[in-house]
Amino acid sequence: MAAEELTLSSHIQHHLTNAKMCSTDAGLAFNKACADSGFWTWHVDTLAWSIGLGLIFLWIFRSAAKKSTTGVPGKFQCFIEMIVEFVGDNVRDTYHGNSKLIAPLALTIFVWVFLMNLMDLIPVDFLPAFAGFVGETAFGMDSHDVYMKIVPTTDINMTAALAIGVLILMIGYSIRIKGIGGFIAELTLHPFSSNNKVAMIFLIPCNLLLETIALVAKPFSLALRLFGNLYAGEMIFILIGAIGLMQLPLHFIWAVFHILVIVLQAFVFMMLTIVYLSMASAKDSH
Amino acid sequence: MELVEGLKLIAVALLIGFGAIGTAIGFGNMGGKFLEACARQPELAPSLQVKMFILAGLIDAVAMIGVGIAMFMLFAL
């Protein structure tokens, strides 16, 4: 059956490993053969699930938009309108600039992150066991060599990608509103400034250090907050699943708590994105 | 090797424990002030509640980062 011994920790490790693909000397390789392939190893399960869920989001909202009427709305249209209105109200209250991109961006971030987090509520073994079954019957692999993690946001690569996107937008909006000179001035002349030229020579490195740390800490904390919450949640699901029959009430309790966490984390990611972009578009901050 | 395993477990315990202390104190303070504010001005309760959830996400953040790193260290390192 299994080439390796089926222990608790090997089961947990199996559920925590992404499906990797890399290109080695012998062509495309997968999973264990990728141990030494360095930076260009793709987590194909994260990519597939995140892109698939993004397409589902686009399909749902597009079909709601095409079928929308100005008469009495049906339940589906009402539901979609509630979400759009919720995001729109938050953007209107929080974003003080002038840009048509922010509301659709906020909607995408909220619904996409929520859908990805929602995958965590599917029992941990279901889809990976099905994937193992498909691997055995269709490809003749040992089902223990099939790795799949269905929650893309438990992969730090996914959350970091979202956060890097937000960072690029922050810098882009700053430069667009304030110009390159204004952007550099904001990094070097705040928070310490003086009219004495000599003092400024000493203060500019201090300002640069403080402002760069503040600039980098924002996407860094965005990525790690989402990753930490979801990874810990998934880990606790796996651990509860390993204790036998008592897992059922514990699973229920943790799942109810986790429903709050997944919505909250998607909401917090969206709100912080809006706030950071609002700060970046502010003409005259400090 | 047992020494490394033992130190790893102590590190995980410190990470999760200290994060929990900070989060508990923070939530306690914030929740208390929220309840006071709602008692003084009940009509503000819905909008304050939304802001409270945003703050909850932020207060949780560094503790959750610690928990994420601790879990990762425990099982994948």
UniProtKB/TrEMBL annotation, chain A:
One of its GO terms (cellular component) is plasma membrane. It comes from Pseudoalteromonas phenolica. It is found in: Cell membrane; Membrane. Belongs to the ATPase A chain family. GO terms for molecular function: proton-transporting ATP synthase activity, rotational mechanism. Keywords: ATP synthesis, Cell membrane, CF(0), Hydrogen ion transport, Ion transport, Membrane, Transmembrane, Transmembrane helix, Transport. This is ATP synthase subunit a. Key component of the proton channel; it plays a direct role in the translocation of protons across the membrane. InterPro entries: ATP_syn_F0_a_bact/chloroplast (IPR045082), ATP_synth_F0_asu (IPR000568), ATP_synth_F0_asu_AS (IPR023011), F0_ATP_A_sf (IPR035908). HAMAP family: ATP_synth_a_bact. The keyword Transport applies. SUPFAM superfamilies: F1F0 ATP synthase subunit A.
UniProtKB/TrEMBL annotation, chain B:
Its main location: membrane. InterPro entries: ATP_synth_csu_bac/chlpt (IPR005953), ATP_synth_F0_csu (IPR000454), ATP_synth_F0_csu_DDCD_BS (IPR020537), ATP_synth_F0_csu_sf (IPR038662), ATPase_proteolipid_c-like_dom (IPR002379), F/V-ATP_Csub_sf (IPR035921). One of its GO terms (cellular component) is proton-transporting ATP synthase complex. GO terms for molecular function: lipid binding; proton-transporting ATP synthase activity, rotational mechanism. It is found in: Cell membrane. Keywords: ATP synthesis, Cell membrane, CF(0), Hydrogen ion transport, Ion transport, Lipid-binding, Membrane, Transmembrane, Transmembrane helix, Transport. The chain crosses the membrane at residues 6-31, 52-76. It comes from the Bacteria. Residues 10-73 form the V-ATPase proteolipid subunit C-like domain. It holds the Pfam family ATP-synt_C. The keyword Transport applies. The record marks D60 as: Reversibly protonated during proton transport. It is a multi-pass membrane protein. NCBIfam families: ATP_synt_c, PRK06876.1. F(1)F(0) ATP synthase produces ATP from ADP in the presence of a proton or sodium gradient. F-type ATPases consist of two structural domains, F(1) containing the extramembraneous catalytic core and F(0) containing the membrane proton channel, linked together by a central stalk and a peripheral stalk. During catalysis, ATP synthesis in the catalytic domain of F(1) is coupled via a rotary mechanism of the central stalk subunits to proton translocation. Key component of the F(0) channel; it plays a direct role in translocation across the membrane. A homomeric c-ring of between 10-14 subunits forms the central stalk rotor element with the F(1) delta and epsilon subunits. Belongs to the ATPase C chain family. This is ATP synthase subunit c. It comes from Pseudoalteromonas phenolica. The gene is atpE.
